[in-house]
């Protein structure tokens, strides 16, 4: 495999630089206003699987940065384990049509972006393209910040997206990393989802309503539609800027098999009587899940609360807390002590409920459905930070 896959345009290549290097010196690349699209493009070094080691130091620095942002989110995995896992993720990305682009000068790696095409993660919610470009990492060396290199790496994401014909883009960052949140907001990304984690400890029993909670039978699943759809509509109320949203039937069509599978595995909890359920919690237990493994240590099995919903007229009476406590008991009985839950960005009430049960906002995801479109329409980015 060639070391570098040079783009044809060659702006600002230093005379002394080796082939493929990009001049990102402060004298030629000026800091850009927030959201302004950079004019300079490549050439870049396209990393192949054999040369991923070149970005190792930058990844390790990023992992240290993640630890320093919010030490309370620890324990964290060691630097060695973090890189081992990240490298695997990059290998997988390259093997499935993704790309790692390295910006370098004089053979020194100044920054890189790793990205891959992937199925859009929330088809039950957003009426968006089926695929998006997932930015796995975008980082520049600390002494190269504010020189426009981040913007140029973002331009490389756009180039990759248009090359493969995908508009939507997705990125995640550690909760509390305001600098990252603002950077992506400047580029038109919107906060979309917050994943909260409770790792290595059972969900504590909150004092909730005294309501019977049972595992629901698979035959009850069709009745769950009337509990799920208000959640889908609630998403549209609390995060309207993230639309368009899918219609009710599409949303239910995506979730029905998920609810059925949960019920078959005894992971669908129902509050109140089967004939008139007051609320549900839908759980999943995945074995070998490794999407947190480059940052946080987990056991082999990781649970996820896929959905929690309480009938609108029964909210605020402790049923949500009772469902959460029952979910905790169920997971403990199955020996699972790591659990995550996601909430749409604007769902502050749910985030508060899960936080009160010891979950901590850990991973924030942002999307832009069309490159740059939000900036054009709104002028100033909405920099909601976590
Ligand atoms: C989130 C939800 C499941 C909580 O169920 P609930 O029975 O109302 O919750 P409880 O009465 O047990 O607990 C209320 C707690 O939830 C939080 N909360 C949830 N929604 C809230 C809201 N709209 N306003 C204020 N607090 C809210 C608060 O922390 C509150 O605790 P507090 O009363 O001690 O301050 C329910 O509001 C719901 O179905 N919401 C719509 C769907 C949803 O957002 N699901 C979660 C993501 S899938």
Task: Describe the structure in brief.
Helices cover 30% and strands 23% of the residues.
Structural account:
By secondary structure, the protein is α+β, with helices and mostly antiparallel strands. Helix content is 30%, strand content 23%. A 12-stranded mixed sheet has the order 1-2-3-4-5-12-6-11-10-9-8-7, sandwiched between helices. The longest helix has 17 residues, at 79-95. It starts with 44 loop residues before the first strand and ends in an 8-residue tail after the last helix. The structure holds coenzyme A. Coenzyme A binds next to helix 5, strand 10, helix 7 and helix 8. Residues 1-43 are annotated as: Disordered.
Sequence-ordered SSE layout with sheet pairings:
Blueprint: E1 45-47, H1 56-69, H2 79-95, E2 99-105, E3 108-119, E4 131-140, H3 149-164, E5 169-174, H4 178-186, E6 190-198, E7 213-215, H5 225-238, H6 248-264, E8 268-271, E9 279-287, E10 301-310, H7 319-333, E11 339-344, H8 348-356, E12 360-368, H9 373-378
Parallel strand pairs: 4-5, 10-11
Antiparallel strand pairs: 1-2, 2-3, 3-4, 5-12, 6-11, 6-12, 7-8, 8-9, 9-10
Bound molecules: coenzyme A (COA).
Domain N-acetyltransferase: 53-204, 211-381
Keywords: Transferase
GO molecular function: N-acetyltransferase activity
Distance between the termini: 41 Å
Shape: globular
Q: Please list the strands of the largest sheet in the order they lie side by side.
A: 1-2-3-4-5-12-6-11-10-9-8-7
Hey, roughly how much beta strand do the residues contain?
A: 15-25%
Number of domains: 2
Total beta strands: 12
- Radius of gyration over C-alpha positions, nearest whole angstrom: 22 Å
| Number of helices in the DSSP assignment | 9
